[in-house]
Amino acid sequence: MTTTTPEEENGVKRRDFLYIAAGGLGAVGTAAAIWPFISQMNPSADVLALSTTEADLSGIEVGSELTVVWQGKPIFVRHRTEQDIASAEDVDLATLPDPQPDSERVIKPEWLVMIGICTHLGCVPLKGQGDYGGWFCPCHGSHYDTSGRIRKGPAPANLVIPPYEFLDDNNIKIG
Amino acid sequence: MSFEPKNPAIKWVEDRLPLPGMLHHALYEYPTPKNLSYWWTFGSLAGFMLVVQIVTGIVLAMHYTPHVDHAFNSVEHIMRDVNYGWLIRYMHANGASMFFIVVYLHIFRGLYYGSYKAPRELLWWLGLVIFLLMMATAFMGYVLPWGQMSFWGATVITNLFSAIPLVGDSIVTWLWGGFAVDNPTLNRFFSLHYLLPFVIAGVVILHIWSLHTSGSNNPTGVEIKDKQDSIPFHPYYTVKDLFGLAIFLIFFSAFLFYAPNYLGHPDNYIPANPLVTPAHIVPEWYFLPFYAILRAVPDKLGGVLLMFGAILVLFALPWLDKSRIRSARFRPIYKQLFWIFVADCILLTYIGGKPAEGAYLIWGRIATVYYFVHLLILLPLVGLFEKPKPLPASISEDVLSKKKPAKEEAANA
Ligand code: HEM
Ligand code: FES
Asked: pLDDT band for position B408 (50/70/90)?
């Protein structure tokens, strides 16, 4: 048999170049073809369009709470009492699992707005229960205080504060 | 049999489940005739298209809603909102056409080279079963977007069964799950459209199992006689099939990116309306020859029977063709009849897309009659009377006799 692919210096053959060029192009092409199949599972345009929710605060009495839906998640809007605020502010931060002053968690102290999803594994905590007068998650026993901070139980972090702003005294826009 | 894996993990599996050995045999050492042309690439392209349809279909099912009130809008949602939804839907819609193109070429390859003859009758039958399943799948898939063509296609095709005497109407009601094509029909079609491709995949495995039992036919139609005649599947045919795939993907992409609606019908972008039938209703192009046969007969039951008969008669092909020579290369008369038959099928496709009136009707009838005359009369007769050309003694001899002129040219250059 005749050799049609002469060996060049240091053992590199023209075939080697062809193999790598063809294989490389094939790999890039395959990756490009696979990407749309992964991307399609991300939120679609209509889901992304629903990214803000407005809430009217005027009907929420002191000491009560409204749950609104933002991006499919429950948002707790709590009208806190003087006592709630006082107990939230009067805490030794060093004793908290996830230290954060109450002032960083609110825009106006009487309004606490947070995502009502337990930072442990995603259940919705119950209001007015638990050892700290805030929320209690029944799934695996996490206790949150009147600022929504984790105090006891398996959850690693405080309830998350969503981005929101006051449109006027009685209306907020979440998202 | 002779598979000795070096990798200990593969050997461990092989000793307990000889799957690696089966794959090795099928995709690596499978002794393949050394003279296969690109006509033998369409089988692996069909397998590729089946995978494309299943993968894109599963993605579409993630975003589609099988309900008469939401189906059309959910398809528009896929086209406008879902990331790359337009691409994946166009892949699936055009993919169905590509699948049929490839399978039709695959079938005509079999007709030309006599691949249906002993010992490959069962292989041929399994292929036809796949073809029937593909048609059922494609028909039900076309109903899912719930446009005007979906709805009226579903109505017309399910009504074919009403031609059956006595029980016809009960069967149609049973197919519909109601007294018209409606939500229950859409739901069951979606369920079955999801199921059937996996049934096809199962039959493809049997098809390939049978292929590997008899071995591939080849352009000479002469079986492999000794080692000289064959080469291992890998790397020779893996590379040849991959190259064929690359060319095919260019063709596929041309439709996908430049004419994604060319093969479809614009009326299917009008939401289904059970009260108004579109003026001109035609099936997808791959059903047109059979549609032409249906309409050629001025009798309801007769038309339906003849249409199904046009496919069923292909099952009898191994016995209708009396010639013992496989390849048309050595059958001077059959070779010409083959091309006339191809032209006849193209004519039927053309007629199927035209209104059933005037000259179209007449030509439709002529083409229909010829379809059956070819298969039922000409094929058996030619086999008895034709004088074949001398066959090469072996594949090798045939290949070498062709190589000679090329070598002389090289020597002269
Ligand atoms: C999903 C559809 C199909 C797939 C995936 C498929 C797959 C294959 C593959 C991979 C081969 C071997 C490569 C080749 O010879 O091209 C093959 C061979 C064959 N197929 Fe199919 N096939 C399909 C449909 C059909 C249909 C509809 C028929 C005919 C009615 C058919 C008839 C045959 C025959 C007769 C052979 C043996 C050909 C030979 O060795 O000459 N196939 N098929
Ligand atoms: S999910 Fe709330 S404690 Fe586990």
From this structure: very low
